[in-house]
Amino acid sequence: MDSIIPQLLTGLAGASSLFLVASGLTIIFGVTRIVNFSHGSLMMLGAYIGWSILTRLPREPEWFVLGIIATVLATAVIGVLLEVVVLRRVYRAPELFQLLATFGVVLILQDVTLWIWGPVELPLSRPRWLRTAFDVAGSRLPMADLILIIVGPVVLGLLWLVMNRTRWGTLVRAATLDREMVAALGVDQRLLFTSVFALGAGLAGFGGALSLMSASANLHIDLAVITDAFVVVVVGGLGSLTGAFAASLLIGILQAFGIVLIPKSTLVLVFLVMAVVLVFRPNGLMGRPQADAREALVAAPVVRPAPRELRLLSLATLLLAIVAPFFVGDYYLTVLTDACVAVIFATSLHFMMGPGGMASFGHAAWFGIGAYAAGLLMQWIGAPMPIGLLAAPIAAGIVAALFGWFVVRLSGVYLSMLTLAFAQIVWAICFQWVELTGGDNGMLGLVRPEWARDERVFYWVALALTVAVALLLRRALYAPYGYALRAVRDSATRARAIGLNVGWLRMAAIVIAGAACGLSGALFSYGKGSIFPTYITISHSVEALLMVLLGGLQTIAGPIIGALVYTGLADILMRSTDLWRLVLGAVIVLLVVAFPEGIAGAARRLWLRGREA
Amino acid sequence: MHVTRRLILGASGSLALPGLLRAQGTAPIRIGEINSYTTNPAFTLPYRNAMQLAVEQINGKGGVLGRQLELITRDDAGRPQDAVRLAGEMVNDQKVDVLAGAYLSNVGLALGEYAAQNKRLYIGGEPLTDAMVWERGNRYTFRLRPSTYMQAAILAEEAAKLPAKRWVTVSPNYEFGQSGVKWFKQLLTARRPDVQFVGEQWPALGRVDAGATVQALEQMKPDGIFNVLFGPDLTNFVRQGNTRGLFEKRSVASLLTGEPEYLDPLGDEAPEGWIVTGYPGEAIDTPAHKAYAAAYRAKFNAKPMCGSLVGYALINSIAAGVTKAGSTEIEKMVEGFRGARFDTPVGPAEYRAIDHQGTLGVFVGKTALRRNEGVMTDWRYIDGKDLLPGDDFVRGLRPASAS
Amino acid sequence: MSVLVVQGLSKSFGGVQAVGDVSFAVAPGEMLALIGPNGAGKSTCFNMVGGQMPPDAGSVVLDGKPITGLGPRAISRHGVGRTFQITATFGSMTVRENVQMALLSHRGKIWQFWRPVAGRYADEADALLAQVGLEAQADRATGVLAYGDLKRLELAIALGNAPRLLLMDEPTAGMAPAERVGLMQLTRKLATERGVAVLFTEHDMDVVFDVSDRILVLNRGTLIAEGDGASIRTNPAVREIYLGTGATSGGH
User: Fold this and answer.
1) Which residues contact C136 (CB under 8 A, 6 or more apart)?
2) Is the domain of B118 the same as that of B267?
3) Who has the most CB within 10 Å: A128, A205, A432, B120?
4) Largest Cα–Cα distance of chain A, in whole Å?
5) Which of C139, C160, C124, C127 is nearest to A305 (CA)?
6) What is the ipTM of this complex?
7) In the predicted model, what is the mean pLDDT of chain A?
8) pTM assigned to the model
């Protein structure tokens, strides 16, 4: 095959651009332990700022370099702003809340970018010298690729020098290994964190600016990049620069050859790589196991039975919900039905994430599997709604068991990322396997039986199922199984020492959560009459996280409150303004800053004020 | 019932209180439009502008059936499930008479499904998928724009005239891309049994690895390339292809690339000599189009995009359909829209009774550089009705329940 | 008959022998201390008995049944209770619930999804808590307990599965000297009453000589001495490793 060398060079160029984004993300994570969802947005800003600067400069190479440097500095400043204004206020909050805050920032920056630069994609008109190419092994190697191939290793080398030859770098490495220790040494943590953020953001800006050599500045960069960057960072091992570089090479080169050998593999390839790596190396290629035991103890207060007042309030809410169809219009009825679905969606995630301690970033996968199970059964054997609603949790539970087998061995962010990878694989199958799933066009004609056609009846069905699921999950949490699950989360060591089977307990939590979530997916599909791959997107998974975290992890009422608040908020905002992302993002950031333990958690704290937890 | 009320009001018109009159006889006709305003603003914002222009113009001439048009828009965030929920809001809360909109095919299909299950009228503007009016077509759904099939058909016709025999395809890996490639292959092979397709590339939508893709295509040594990439993917692909010489001495047929939304961003790197479908914009010098473009420029101080044409034609087609129906009662409107003729800036069109497909046509031409910008040259407009397959073929595809 | 019989236990890490050919036995009601300087192989030994680490060679027999190489869960099921150097308890539960969990697990009632935990084996749990002197704190959150109380809670949890053998890794680490003796006296009493064999490691020599029946001394992975307090105190080999050659005292 005479195409090996050109394809390899292409892969190397791809690897370099992956590394530029991933390096910043991994450094930020290593020191601050923040899973920075907004890193892709920083790269997007880098591309836009780079465009604005470079289009105003002369087109000679030296000006190009100058423009890139200016862009890097500008994004570094934005990173500092982000750190000082938002993230500094949430360092004390549990890890996942910081993620929530960064997701709020993503939403805000989407609208801000649209507002500043407009909707049309902005390609940089390439100067002539950038359009040249070199003949290598009978093919042409573009100048841009050559630059990238050189820049990647150079950046790695420079970062290595900074990390190993400067006092600042030593501090960063020390903080990556043990954050508490560095704090104890009397180092100014604020300055360290801010400077690390500046470096990480600058690297993202660098990646964004260099991407202008071949691509345009556009509004889709943020989410497209962030998933790839996560994959690279996780495959390499969180916090490891060399690991990130190795992972970039692996993925870049596999990608380049993969699309020659199996052209349709483009979407799943990276996620398959991540899944395989995590199955065999649970901490990535060069990562270390995370020491997170210390934080777990602090984070979880004692779960007590709900006070009488709360029970009365719940009962009153339920009564209101039952009679609601007599008072609200048809549209609000469908919103209420959606809210029911959201409640199951969120409580099921809470089940594995709160008491189970396993934060899934791919919860939408079960939602989608439930939906498609109902849809396929309808398509194949004309199964009616009751069968579909029964089959959905079974199918989702079975698939959850298969995935769970891999997932339960991991912990922390690695676990979250593996669930994300699985969800992306499920999504890719639904999106690309047009013959089976209808692909992007989805499955239509999921009709309800005659008796459930009426929106009111269907709402009551949804409400009944929701209450049943919520009560069953709650019951399980107060039963020995639920306690055992919490025991495993609190201290796996102790749990094993009293004879608990850690793996199976967590596995059961995944299956239960998956099955319940599958039911919500089917219910949703019957409500809408159709099924689409968008049910399984990352943003839908993130919505589940948002609901759970908004409500609060530590109480059973949390996810329910979170689901209701989020559904209501999103509905109102989407209908009232085109800038709903900006407002929603700002609300999320404010809530995280004001209530780091979630709405229910904050309410609980107020309630308990003056009493011992 | 409706007629009776109008007769009574007409008879006692001079006596009726103005308030009552407004509440009943001349209540505006509400169009509820749902689109991907936040996720695909490049297309949808000019589109919404043009819709507003059309509504203004129609209302200025006295509205439809003596009633004003009122346009309400919502953002679906690119998610069909949100579109369906908002359709419910439009119908039940806003009491709209006609549902319209969608950019993405899946949103269009979801809205069509909503329309069918709830017996509401839905007019899709932009979604291209064939399924919308064929396999998944239904009684309550109409679609304005030329479908994937129609766009691929004209490109296959042009490609058949070329000497190229070895073809490769590159297309985003999802339904639109897959249908585009399927129809192009089928229709080109039918006209030219001697061509062969020697390879295909399926980059993921929105995340093309352009260098590797171009390299892989280059290795296949094709004579012709059929491209379905668009948006940022296209920009990326064209730059890599230009630099690596992929397009040199090769024919390229490319879906939608002539639309300014996709051609403009390529700037001075716009490819030359590609056979494309698209929209030549202000180069169209018919009086109708000139008047439209002038009005658009005057109002928004921007050049009309392809999205603008679609939005403008959509509102005009709705006005024509409702006028022909003579009522906003759903079943009457379905009958009214069937065969409704309407004028667009690029020519007359109609909603075919057989499959509810609009016959808005396709511009096909070649790309060229003029003053460092990509434009369409040698273009011609083909009426949509000439691009659609035979009636029997269509009847075979469309479900019986859709009549 | 001995509760625990360990024979020829060995373990190497990357060619370096951490534990070599260690054999010993513990009788019911006996308290056996495992001592030695840092890096002597105490923890490795302990972890091989407790199931955290499989041995390269040798056997571990509990009540006549081989448990060599089993995991911590299986070993717990065979009747081994365990406390840790850094306390491991269930922070999101009350003190009583912590013990209830051990009791539920011991009785095989974990995989139940319906009947609430509240009230189940509560009396039994309270009885165990009373034995370690925590009855007054039964309803408090584990997270607010003083460190010494946490250690005692661990002991109560470990007793929850009616163990034949109790493994205690540095049970008094981090405690005030006065508390240390109290805790070990308590352990001593429970061991005698219940006939539980206790194997523990310990740094505090006062504690070791005070409560243990027998002492094993490890150095560089091998057993160098075994005997009661008096004989170990006078053993020259032990004196040498603990006090150097006698000329310079490390002050330990």
Assistant:
1) none
2) no
3) A205
4) 79
5) C139
6) 0.92
7) 89
8) 0.89
